[in-house]
Predict the structure.
Amino acid sequence: MNTEPVDKEAPDRLYTVTAGRGGADEPTLDSVALIVAESEPSPDMQSEHTAILRLCTRPIAVVELSAELELPVSVVRILLADLLDTGAVTARHTTPSTAQEGARHDSDTLKQVLLALQRL
Amino acid sequence: MPSNASEPLITAPGSTTRTAPDRFPLAGTVSSALKIVIVGGFGVGKTTMVGSVSEMRPLSTEEIMTQAGAEVDDLRGTRDKRTTTAAFDFGRITIDSTRVLYLFGAPGQKRFWFLWGQLFIGSLGAIVLVDTARMEDSWYAIDRLEHHGTPFVVAVNRFGPGPDLERVRAALDLSNDVPLLECDARRRESSRDVLVTLVHHLASRERGGFAPKDSM
């Protein structure tokens, strides 16, 4: 388990964690894409990857991983790109992110949201 | 246990008072997630509102601004450049066996707006939380939401006596089709009512088709 919150450290450390990559060559994962582990951590994995695999034995959103790992969301996305590439995790998401906001919900979804709120 | 002693207790109807659990994994069947953003100035009660309705203890994290939200985020560059970091918090409400709603509390100031491009794209809608003592804190957020066509409602978190809602509407230059209500973000039922108002607002837009805002 990674114990040092790397974002509190020098940017050099973030650079190391992500092996110097930005995320531009990857399609951007939505902030609430749900990540699920498909395999066990292996001994040769970097500690952040191991930590992610342990956290996503049940579905967990990208932002929750960010909070648990104490890493900025963009850094978590880069780490996840590696794991997605090797099939160690999969991402569940419905709707791709687009610049078009607000027009993507159907009335059934809204109805279910209302019911859930009324149960609060 | 939550370390913050002022964190509100969450009361479920018909049950004893409890605190939200620290780690509360989603059901294995959940396959899609929705988001609603609560935006407002510092200290207006965003975190309180998230916490009052979340099924888990709210989490906080941060995001760093990447170039224009889409360009190459070369972290080597951060050595020389000033980077903008924005902290935000969030909670969640399970909708049904396959869907979950995430609620984000996010700062509304201009320098934090990159969060929308990087994290909040695709939100169902937004709640602008207003402190009537500092209404100017909300202007930028309202302007951006209108510009992006993101549906929103405005909720005045009442800290004490203040101007009535008609004066708030005028001060914020809100059109009449934007719902405006009062709330007490500490109370679960009150925060829930704000969310319900937003969802009704979304549903009415659905029924009415996609009305361009210049048709007002």
